[in-house]
Amino acid sequence: MTRLVLLALVGLAAQLVDGALGMAYGVTSTTLLLLAGVAPASASASVHLSEIGTTLASGIAHWRFGNVDWRVVTRIAVPGAVGSFLGATVLSTISTSTAAPWTSGVLLALGVFLVARFTRPLRPARPRPVRTRFLAPLGLVAGFVDATGGGGWGPIATPTLLASGRMEPRKVIGSVNTAEFLVAAAASAGFLIGLGTSGFVLPTVIALLAGGVVGAPLAAWLVRAVPGQVIGAAVGGLIILTNTRTLLRVSDLESSVGPWLYPLLGLVWVSAITIAIRIHRRVRTTRQPSPVAEPELEPAV
């Protein structure tokens, strides 16, 4: 029972981050499940099945708060679903021992990407239509990586759309979260075909789903207020540390490399969070209007 409560809290925290940043639910949840000893394919399958419910709740909440561009959703969701179905099929056909380093390698790369993305200022948006020839391959690649890595739809799609400078950040986050419903459903179908029902750890799915559904409306409401710069750097650092540990264990290098590499990564993580906080404060300060100086009053004669 305690384990299920903890998993529900994991789902809640992951959905708060995902709903506020447009990424990290799958990456965070899968990383923690791998640490708990769940097989890579089963971990990814369980997370994607729970995401059907969490992304539906998140999409509805973002839509209610006006954070969704339906034109972008329709053009990125279908290619994303195709890519996630193919990725789930590929992951279902390889052995656990082969999948573990691959999955952790993908997650590690995504963690590095998150840290790099959120330790530099975001470019201001210049709203313009995003073309289908840009959205379709983006959705296909993000969907494939999402299914094979247990996460990656948000970390690939959200920063790429933000970097294009064509959409408001809240529209990017809301649209990516809404499109993820179809991506999660397609990935779950692929895992169901490749693994059968035994590939899903149902108690884990229910716990993650319960926590995620509770967190989805709150995350959509907080999307304009949460300092995403800081959370992105923190989540990225956590993912780097945990998946580096997995890769070192698989390669039998933890005893020789771990004692000096872990403190180094911890220092990098703290530095990244510090930089993100400074950027957030600097951006917030520059956006505040400068006070108008009051005229000096001459003394009365």
Topology:
Blueprint: H1 2-21, H2 25-35, H3 40-64, H4 70-92, H5 96-118, H6 132-149, H7 153-164, H8 169-195, H9 202-222, H10 228-250, H11 254-287
Structural descriptors:
about 300 residues, mainly alpha
Structure description:
By secondary structure, this protein is mainly alpha-helical. It has one domain. Helix content is 79%, strand content 0%. It is built from eleven helices and no strands. It has helices at 2-21, 25-35, 40-64, 70-92, 96-118, 132-149, 153-164, 169-195, 202-222, 228-250, 254-287. Helix 2 packs antiparallel against helix 3, helix 2 (25-35) runs parallel beside helix 10 and helix 3 (40-64) runs parallel beside helix 9. It is globular, with a radius of gyration of 21 Å. It starts with a helix and ends in a 14-residue tail after the last helix. 50% of the residues are buried. The model has no long low-confidence stretch (mean pLDDT 76).
